[in-house]
């Protein structure tokens, strides 16, 4: 299938459109599409196709697409499912480059539909036709040069800078209506339906290249190709905001998504990691998406997280302050000269500290003075203005002040207009002036916080991990040897070799068969030591009494040996004599956890957390997808709830954060080098206060051989 | 000041009203109040008072309130601040029973204003006058028998079942407008201003007794009298919902609240605990408050948390499912016979599992069949219906189906209507039919979750702690002896006596001066033991090397003794010879934390958490105010994030939850019995797997003597 994003021009910038299944009957989809194409004013010719009608929408109707005299770039297909393949074949013969199939009855209904979908896919691929759908709501491009509305939606939004992709046709319909109502201008829109060809990553690439697209919005239930999505998103998010609602967050939601689109909703942790790793801003709800998109539309991004609040009422300012604090915005202390300027301009009862209270009597001039002062303050990155319309003030005049400052200032200005019913004139002025107006101060705070988040995504650098000094050949030979021997779980000595080849040492330890040998080893490394049962089939060793800690003397070591042998000598799964692993006991640091696990859709997921109860019970773990960039690894280490423990608790030294980041990058490198290592836990890894003493205390690793038949 | 809630009748059900400062000039407050009183149709006489006007609003105007011929129940005061006291004196002489002072310029401006406020307070108290304000927006009672609008708000909501109290006048104004716009009916409203007399607890009591008030809504920045608030709320929340926005959540927000009302915003943990302990539902934003209040207005409460979703589109159902799961609602499996019924009524492609997808082609009949089936399902406690208006369906007919089911069903029905702009007719039908309609499925889910939460509050039982067998006299004599000796920190032996008097044992331990004595004690309790420095001035003993754990032999004990003496023998704060506390080492359980600390506004705050790093670094602690009811203590134990650790990790037994609850109740009892104990930490307390071995491992307790002059 074509990979050049420009091939999507056939869908979004066609020179001519045929509607296959055009209908004269209102409320039929084939009618609504004709109404939208002509009503929105498509700049090229529209050809209705229907063998049973002569004229549709005052246009001569063609029995088949092949009968159309001129060239056809795009065909919109609305005929019943059993007729779609024949129509598509004729389109191919006609030289059509883009197909939008609105018809339902494909993979989403299973059986025959699945076969039909596969055939449609093959046909389009064979002829280089780009396909949107089937089972979708259509595509839209409101660019004045194009004015293409190939949907059956009942409303058409204004032309603006946002592009929107929806994996739900119904939500798309609702969202076009909401965009119009909320004043969010759209440039392009696509409903992806069953997503046989055109997928989210195609649109990211296409819209990413189009300078008329200022921001990209998506409602996703699945990613299509996660790797290509991530690659495209990493490029695009440095140039323009990408804001996503990813549904299927809950297990139950994912089930609903499966029965809905037949797509495999990947595991939530992986999906969340993917979005974080490519600079996409994920929001929880469509409402949040619209609020943030409208804020982006204003075109101003804050340089930091410092907000000034200007209000004519105390209560709403308290709510705004609470919301800002909860969202990570800083209610900054104003510069002394700003306070002085405010002091001159405002009555003595006013508050010249942040939040600036201009009092209920504030008119347009007073708001003007206050906004001028705080917007000029170098400590202020953005302003949240609250206006409760009081009986004695000309509210439209105040609104005009907001409009003027919003258009002139280089800093974002969010307006909360409270008691809208009594503020009709002010609201109309603000809307006309293109100023996003919120009903509640908390919503204004959320919009500003979203802008801060988006601004941060532009700064994100996806540095590839440095080439650590690793001994790939040595690790590979260990892995190959184990696989050749038919084993998929590595033993302790093997793991030591593999991890040490990647510069990650293991604690001094030795697998020992006799007590004398154990005593000699313990004397060499020094007491205290730890004794563990060495048996590949015992997974949770410490749960089963197979780990004895803090052995301080030769006598205690003898008792530990005896205990382990007693516990593991017999039993249905016992395999030969029990061997014991003796290792130095290291406690002078913080125990952390590193892990990797395969994910059916996203490749491999890596994990970092604090060791022990933190990872197992409190689930204080951060996930990212392999391969890790440096910023991913840094975010993993910094992202755990218990990070204060790494920073030094109650007078203890911090552990070396850089070392933990480096270990993550080396482990990711190892996964790239050795795809046979599908899963491992370093649990725990001791992050020592003296980093040169950091080491793996316990670990396990699982291999998978290459599938039969591969080379 | 009068305590009988019926005294508020003078404010909310007066037979006559005087407006002191009535004005002929529009936009003056004294004019707006006259307009509202007459325009809303107050059922008694209104008397304008103004020495400089003869007629206001076509009514004869009186120079002073004393000149009014008939009796006056309520006076609304709008004259400038310096004239308020004289007006109030005349009201007292006239026999006025209620005063609403709208005028600003009191404690909120400090100085003279504070003195003026104190005088006003004393005057009202002396004459038994109930006072709302000063510096407020007025009061409202829309009961048809009264129709009192003594505010200067520009909009008047419809009469309904909600009562609303606001500590911010500006928010009150905005909220009256929002209530009208959102169709939330209000019965009564009060803006509390500086809250000199009438406080939130007065309104809770008054509105709690009034059967016409269906629910109570509050915007609070402080509580007034927290104890009375809690007492009143505990009674009222069992009868009707109380929903509160408590502002000042962040430190910065609290600061804004202080400069705003001059009130002391209590610590956030205490405020949050208070609301949880009295069955109030706290929501984050005014928007959430309105959404939930509108849901309550429908008058149906769910019996459990099981929701069924009926939708005509997949995407919104996925979003709804995600939101329900995040909010703790269960997407229940429908009964087999419900699925059978749906299977008969719906087309074969429809989903008869929850979420029930009636498909985009669903008309009124199909929605009717689906709603009838799921509402009749005994596993379903409530229904979330999603309707995306498609081109080919009569949306008003579908809306009428929703209205019919909403009015007949005993279960809550929340409707999400997507794409509102194209759904005008449906929206109007739903509004007229009194069905709360949400723009987004997530909002509908939030409303349902709020109802579940509120329903739970009605079931809450505030059982007083049982009379544990305690030896109060023994504990009291220890405390008194320490105070008499001029000490405010208890020693180890004293704490043992006090806590054991309340049935909470301490680990076997002894304070010892010689090594021989220590060895004898260790032999008696058995190794391993712990040695700790015993010195009142060393607070964080383990941070300073004053605690040595896991001493396994007489030799190790000797070394530990020497180490502690070396570390603490000298130093500027050393006081006499170092003594060492030797105690049995107990590890066979989970270390938890119990604490109590004084709060300047709320009395004493109690805390529970897991010990060690969980409390100190991860802040995994739950707070409640003393005294605790049983349900409070249970919620504390169940409320920690790490509660899985109490329930048994990796095959270990659970600890005895009932014992932890009992300890909390005994500690609360101790705080009641011994008010001199102002602060303590039991950190850690060992919750042993064998509950009979649970004990305090370390603790500290601080006393405060009774203030000088008390008995």
3D structure, described in words:
Two copies of one chain form a homodimer. The first copy, chain A, has 711 residues and is α/β, with parallel strands linked by helices. Chain A folds into five domains: 1-138, NAD(P)-binding Rossmann-like Domain (Rossmann fold, 3-Layer(aba) Sandwich); 153-297, Succinyl-CoA synthetase domains (Rossmann fold), CATH 3.40.50.261; 299-459, 3-Layer(aba) Sandwich (Rossmann fold), CATH 3.40.50.261; 508-584, Dna Ligase, domain 1 (2-Layer Sandwich); 589-703, 2-Layer Sandwich (D-amino Acid Aminotransferase, Chain A, domain 1). The first copy, chain A, has 24 helices and 30 strands. In chain A, the strands form six sheets. The first copy, chain A, has a seven-stranded mixed β-sheet, sandwiched between helices. In chain A, strands 15, 16, 17, 18, 19 and 20 form a six-stranded parallel β-sheet that branches. In chain A, strands 25, 26, 27, 28, 29 and 30 form a six-stranded antiparallel β-sheet that branches. In chain A, helix 3 (81-94) packs parallel to helix 4 (112-127), helix 10 (286-297) crosses helix 16 (441-459) and helix 13 packs parallel to helix 14 (395-408). The longest helix of chain A has 19 residues, at 441-459. The model of chain A is unreliable at 258-266 (pLDDT under 50). Chains A and B meet through helix 5, helix 8 and helix 11 of A and helix 5, helix 8 and helix 11 of B.
